[in-house]
Amino acid sequence: QVQLVESGGDLVQPGGSLRLSCAASGFRFSDYAMSWHRQAPGKERELVATITSPSGSSANYPDSVKGRFAISRDNAKSTLYLHMNSLKPEDTAVYYCNGKRGTHYTDYGALRPASGPWGQGTQVTVSS
After folding, report:
1. Which residue of 27, 38, 78, 115 is surrounded by the most CB atoms within 10 Å?
2. Alpha-carbon distance 99 to 4, whole Å?
3. What is d(CA 114, CA 13) in angstroms, rounded to the nearest whole number?
């Protein structure tokens, strides 16, 4: 059974840092390109980072987080990370991970389908 369990979310002040984790099981983690997404209240879910497989040699970010967020992976632990720095109030959201078999992530054919609920995720709140 495929499982993706996010953790590490917290309440943090603007300018602060957090590291999110995504523990994966039920599939061969190193064969999957991985991603982080977020969804703020009343907004659509958005992609915030992707990383290639197996080595994670390439990562991509939208302009909204580029230079502040860094995605990484530990294949030995089947765990995906999101390092977030210089956090802003607009980063407040529930954060989720996802995966797609192959070297590069795409929503099409991903473990969690684009439509439908993705579970609880981990809440990040940036506020003073």
Report:
1. 38
2. 9
3. 31
Are 100 and 45 in contact, with CB atoms under 8 Å apart?
Answer: no
pLDDT digits (tens, 9 = 90+) for 72-94: 999 999 999 999 999 999 999 99
Residue 116 CB neighbour total at 10 angstroms: 6
With 0-12 / 13-18 / 19 or more C-beta atoms within 10 angstroms meaning exposed / middle / buried, residue 95 is buried
Distance CA 18, CA 70 (A): 11
Give one DSSP letter per residue of the chain, joined into a string.
Answer: --EEEEE---EE-TT--EEEEEEEESS-GGGEEEEEEEE-TTS--EEEEEE-SSS---EE--TTTTTTEEEEEETTTTEEEEEE-S--GGG-EEEEEEEEESSS--STT-SS-SSS-----EEEEE--
- Those residues with Cβ within 8 angstroms of residue 107's Cβ, 6 or more apart along the chain or in another chain: 47, 98, 100, 114
Alpha-carbon distance of 28 to 14, in angstroms, equals 37
